[in-house]
Amino acid sequence: MIVVASTVLPLIRSNEWWIRWFDFPRLQILVVGFAVVGLQVLLGMKMGRFRAVLLSALLLSIGYQAYQICPYTPLAGVQVKDAIGRDNDVVVRILTANVLMDNRDAESYLSVLADADPDIILTTETDDWWAEQLKVLDRLYPYKVTYPLENTYGMILHSRFPLIEPSVQFLVEPMVPSIHTGMRLPGGDRLQLIGLHPRPPGPTENEESTQRDAELIIAGRSVKRSDRPVIVIGDLNDVAWSHTTSLFQEISGLLDPRIGRGMFNSYHADYLFIRFPLDHIFHSEHFKLIEMRRLPHIGSDHFPIYAALSYHPRKDAAQQPDSPDPDEQEEADETVEEAFEKKH
Questions:
Q1: At 12, is the pLDDT very low, low, confident or very high (cuts 50, 70, 90)?
Q2: Distance between CA atoms of 190 and 344, rounded to whole angstroms?
Q3: Average pLDDT of every residue of the chain
Q4: Whether 113 and 204 share a structural domain
């Protein structure tokens, strides 16, 4: 019954945190479902009418959970093509990491950064202590945006590429920043980058997912209005397969390099069975994937996520997500409207 209930609850279009939480553990629910079916077979339990109905519901739940997570396995086709090596391509190496504000193991994080050698780094949950520790990166990364906070929503962006009109914006909530900036790529083309870390729904955070969902929708719409190459990164406090993240992709037109390759679960770093893909790298059709990796433990409850992308000035029309239908557009409008009503 638990597996069936956990499958049905997310189908309810409610923003209550305890319902939206069931978007997260789809893999875990799938594993438990298989285990229950396996026990049924091994123990040879008699199949009465009630048990037959329950088993049918369980099998339907397993099938639905598998359907939801299948795109994030090698069984599905990729959404982002593999890059074909050409010496003149511009390569953009990106790393996003939630360092956990109370984590004081900066040495491990700096070691991972040195090994990965990214061009762009977004570090979230940074307070003043973390801002001080990361100053050692200034020599290698001369361009940065620093906005430390003591509420776990501080963020710092480091870049080897020159920044163009960088800004810190508060899309929905007053103490939850996001970073928006242009970047000048080698060769002169301009890239637009957004770094996000919205507040999650939860008993100690927002009681509803409305504010998080609205921030993703607003960011997605701003991206859609741009003709430039775009990258959106950060800890979105939402899983890759959720309705909200799918809606963000459709509204923004951005691609997910994980599709067809793997989940790249980034949270929780300390518990193998409780892991979800919360840290994301989305990009426009201007890029193809060279590699994507989950990086080693840094003392945080999140693993860093790294991707190397090959930039092509012309969009690849073969790389496109679905577009939102009118009902989804209306849903997005209502979510944003409700979030601003709560704000005031």
A1: confident
A2: 36
A3: 93
A4: yes
Q: Is residue 81 part of a domain?
A: no
Q: Is the pLDDT of residue 43 over 80?
A: no
What local confidence, expressed as pLDDT, does residue 47 receive?
66
12 and 151 within one domain: no
Structure tokens at 44: 């040879």
In this structure, what CATH number is given to the domain that contains residue 176?
Answer: 3.60.10.10
Q: What is the 3-state secondary structure (H, E, C) of the chain?
A: CHHHHHHHHHHCCCCEHHHHHHHCCHHHHHHHHHHHHHHHHHHCCCCCHHHHHHHHHHHHHHHHHHHHHHHHCCCCCCCCCECCCCCCCEEEEEEEEECCCCCCCHHHHHHHHHHHCCCEEEEECCCHHHHHHHHHHCCCCCEEEEECCCCCCCEEEEECCCEEEEEEECCCCCCCCEEEEEEECCCCCEEEEEEECCCCECCCCECECHHHHHHHHHHHHHHHCCCCCEEEEEECCCCCCCHHHHHHHHHHCCECCCCCCCCCCCECCCCCCCCECCEEEEECCCEEEEEEEECCCCCCCECCEEEEEEECCCCCCCCCCCCCCHHHHHHHHHHHHHHHHHHC
Q: Does residue 86 register a pLDDT over 70?
A: no
Q: How far is CA 240 from CA 141, 172, 247, 295, in A?
A: 30, 21, 11, 18
- Say whether both 43 and 168 belong to one domain: no
Other Cβ atoms closer than 10 A to 22:
17
pLDDT at 324: 87
